[in-house]
Design a protein that fits this description.
Layout (H helix, E strand, L loop, with lengths): L1 H50 L5
């Protein structure tokens, strides 16, 4: 009986650890994506303002 409960606890702990790693990796990927998009947007703003006839 005790080994059955211990097995269930270990399984729950393993699932929680895998989920935590997944969410941590997801957060890091999101941060990297936002940084890349911000850099791209900064470059696009310069291109758009220099190509616009309104600013000439």
């Amino acid at each position: 009986m005790e080994t059955d409960v211990l097995g269930k606890c270990l399984s729950a702990l393993l699932i929680a650890a895998v989920a935590a790693c997944f969410f941590a990796a997801n957060g890091m990927f999101y941060e990297a994506l936002v940084v890349q998009l911000n850099e791209w947007a900064d470059g696009q703003a310069a291109v758009a303002s220099s190509a616009s006839s309104f600013y000439r």
